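Why should sequence recovery work at all? Because a backbone constrains its sequence more than one might expect. Tight turns favour small or flexible residues, buried strands favour hydrophobic ones, and helices have their own preferences. The token representation captures these environments compactly. In the example below, the structure is given first.
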């Protein structure tokens, strides 16, 4: 049984984390083995994503007034993943669950100052990273120039 002072401290810590993050993901980790959770924490830490397990009642108190809309339903055992990058926390949770075939479930989150449901958060999780998007743009810009160079080279060879 936690003391009231300890609960208040935990709520303040959660509020600080939520306020300082650009996105927060609610994760149901029920059925996750200890060694898988250790690996999850390590991989998230390497990607500058924080991860905290919390009681739902304390999390609900910490979430009051932090975003617009209604808090999504949070069944099971709940943790939060958070980061200063808008898509990193959801993307890393999604990728870990996909690669390691673990029972992680994205329940929803806070994105752009609004509570969103799990389906919308999954859409955000599948957005590629900034570096991947920039490389795709570079390829799209390079491709027409490369085709033009090949065409000019072929014309020069025929003459």
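From this structural description, the recovered sequence reads:
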């Amino acid at each position: 049984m936690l003391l009231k002072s300890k609960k208040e401290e935990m709520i303040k810590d959660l509020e600080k984390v939520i306020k300082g993050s650009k996105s927060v993901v609610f994760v149901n980790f029920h059925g996750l083995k200890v060694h898988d959770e250790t690996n999850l924490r390590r991989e998230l830490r390497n990607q500058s994503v924080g991860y905290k397990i919390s009681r739902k009642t304390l999390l609900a108190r910490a979430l009051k007034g932090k975003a617009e809309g209604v808090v999504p339903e949070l069944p099971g055992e709940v943790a939060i993943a958070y980061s200063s990058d808008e898509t990193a926390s959801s993307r890393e949770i999604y990728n870990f669950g996909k690669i390691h075939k673990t029972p992680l479930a994205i329940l929803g989150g806070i994105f752009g100052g609004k509570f969103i449901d799990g389906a919308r958060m999954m859409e955000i999780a599948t957005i590629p990273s900034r570096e991947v998007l920039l490389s795709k743009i570079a390829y799209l810009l390079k491709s027409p120039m490369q085709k033009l160079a090949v065409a000019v080279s072929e014309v020069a060879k025929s003459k």
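A few observations help interpret the result. The longest helix spans residues 130-158.
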